[in-house]
UniProtKB/TrEMBL annotation:
Classification of source organism: Bacteria, Bacillati, Actinomycetota, Actinomycetes, Streptosporangiales
Full protein name: FAD-binding domain-containing protein
Any single GO BP term: secondary metabolite biosynthetic process
Gene3D superfamilies: FAD/NAD(P)-binding domain (3.50.50.60)
Membrane-crossing segments per the record: none
Residue runs in coiled coils: none
């Protein structure tokens, strides 16, 4: 991924015991991926050793029952840790923040009106049932959990399914996987994009951007 100042962000994953540390992380990367096609070996050899970050990857096998308890809400990896294979970790955290801000803001603006949950209508997201106005922070956060739990669980599973494919080590299985992906790329080039439709089609809850629209209309 190109960044500013002629920098390039690169990440790689491999199967190792948790907590593994190497004396020279760059040389270990070159050893593992140096026989890949260019420019991958060149990028690895040009990497500044001081900028290489090695972390274990975590993913929730079982979704949390809710993303809140009492007045405390979880967002991002704290709520739904996932593998990096879809590039959705930070994206889902941003969605969490938008929905959480919408739920709390809507509840504050409508204390005596419709429930915050009733306003959660988002393309690709869950719609929580309406009802009497919530009377506690926990009830506001029920709407947040209801809106986000199903969607993020699907993204976690989809990312993990790709991760499992990348962890194949049997030479025959690797060959079959690579041939299948190559064939799919030639015969159905848009298949990968279509598989991401549900992930990429998410929209903020109705009313979540009303304030921005108002400010633009008023020239602020």
């Amino acid at each position: 991924m190109p960044l500013a100042d002629d920098l390039v962000y690169v990440y790689a994953t491999d199967v190792l015991p948790a907590g593994t540390v190497f004396g020279d992380e760059r040389e270990e990367l070159v050893r593992r991926f140096g026989d890949w096609h260019e420019p991958i070996p060149a990028l690895l050899r040009a990497a500044d050793p001081g900028m290489i970050i090695r972390n274990d990857v975590y993913s929730f096998d079982t979704p949390l029952p809710a993303f809140h308890r009492g007045k405390v809400a979880l967002v991002g990896d704290a709520a739904h840790a996932m593998t990096p294979n879809l590039g959705q970790g930070a994206c889902q955290a941003i969605e969490d923040a938008i929905v959480l801000a919408h739920v709390v803001g809507h509840a504050q603006r409508n204390k005596g009106g419709d429930a915050a949950a009733g306003a959660l209508r988002a393309t690709g997201g869950a719609e929580a049932p309406g009802g009497p106005a919530p009377r506690s922070a926990g009830e506001h956060l029920d709407a947040y959990s209801a809106a986000r739990l199903g969607r993020t669980s699907k993204v976690v599973r989809q990312s993990m399914s790709i991760c499992r494919m990348t962890k194949v080590r049997n030479p025959v299985a690797v060959r079959l996987r690579d041939l299948g992906m190559s064939l799919a790329a030639r015969t159905m080039p848009d298949m990968m994009l279509r598989s991401m439709d549900e992930v990429l089609s998410w929209r903020p809850p109705v009313g979540a951007t009303d304030g921005d629209e108002r400010h633009r209309a008023e020239g602020r």
